[in-house]
Design brief:
Keywords: Hydrolase, Magnesium, Metal-binding, NAD. The chain is of the alpha+beta class. It has 5 helices and 16 strands. Bound molecules: zinc ion.
Length: about 280
């Protein structure tokens, strides 16, 4: 693996059964209104609430789930009413801004929380017979009591690939991107194909190119709403850029100094582009 990622230990341990003693000051609550997370704001700092904060501020939790332990602190996810308003003590923040506020490791737990809350909310009823589902106690799953159908959290794998040609990489823009924004080729894996086949197909569909030397780079949970982004590097083999499926309106080869937009460094897209740039400078 190219990306530097040595996982000697995990910050977060997923668990199903909550501790007997809840409501400790060290507990963390990941409470969402739609896709924005509730944070406590005081004069000095902004932080995640504990159970005490929430009860003293009169926050009424819905669809609460126990997530597991983050560095020995119990973590819970819950939703609140859509009309709950900010006040002097409570603010709501975009999930993407969280790493800069509570740190990357804790923000990753927030991503896990919103992913599981949406799964729970989207599987209230059985899709086969419409009966209300229940949460299983022995695994992270829900089940229909009538027909027995199981509902596991949905994870949608998607690929993203940095394609190199000589000392340039391919960047492309979709019609819905903000003005001037370019990115790497990305797309969802289709049923029945391998991840590597998805890389080859997406590149052919979006820009009409053949690639070779496909190598795994790294992966990243992407809870917008339920993806796992799997990053690759590849080399151009042959073909001319052409837009086959209409998802791309412009694309080109960019050297390190010409890259029109460097994605955020807390995304695998940003890591891939920075990896290319760091090698170009050496
Ligand atoms: Zn059913």
């Amino acid at each position: 693996m190219i990306r530097e990622c040595i996982l000697s230990e995990l910050d977060f341990l997923p668990l199903l059964t909550p501790p007997e003693k809840q409501g400790k000051d060290s507990d963390h609550y990941f409470v969402f209104k739609d896709r924005e997370i509730l944070l406590i704001s005081d004069e000095d700092s902004i932080f995640l609430p504990s159970a005490d904060h929430l009860s003293s501020l009169g926050v009424d939790l819905q669809r609460e789930q126990y997530l597991g332990e983050f560095r020995n602190s119990s973590c819970f996810a819950a939703k609140i009413a859509d009309d709950f308003a900010e006040n002097d003590s409570i603010i709501f923040e975009d999930l993407r801004k969280l790493p800069g506020i509570i740190g990357e490791s804790m923000a990753a737990v927030a991503g896990r929380a919103v992913h599981l809350l949406e799964w729970d909310f989207n599987t209230l009823y059985c899709g086969r017979c419409s009966t209300a589902t229940f949460r299983k106690e022995d695994e992270r799953a829900k089940q229909c009591p009538d027909c027995g159908l199981l509902f596991f959290p949905k994870i949608s794998p998607a690929i993203i690939v940095m394609i190199e040609k000589d000392d340039r990489i391919l960047m492309a823009r979709s019609p819905h991107f903000p003005s001037g924004r370019y990115g790497l080729i990305a797309g969802f894996v289709e049923p029945g194909e391998s991840i590597e086949e998805a890389v080859v197909r997406e590149v052919m569909e979006e820009v009409g190119l053949c690639i070779t030397d496909i190598s795994y780079f790294g992966s990243q949970p992407w809870p917008y709403p339920d993806s796992l982004m799997i990053g690759f590097t590849a080399k151009y083999r042959d073909g001319e850029i052409r837009f086959i499926d209409g998802e791309i309106e412009d694309a080109g080869w960019f050297s390190c100094d010409e890259i029109p937009h460097v994605p955020g460094s807390n995304s695998i897209s940003g890591e891939l582009v920075e990896y290319f740039m760091s090698r170009s400078r050496t």
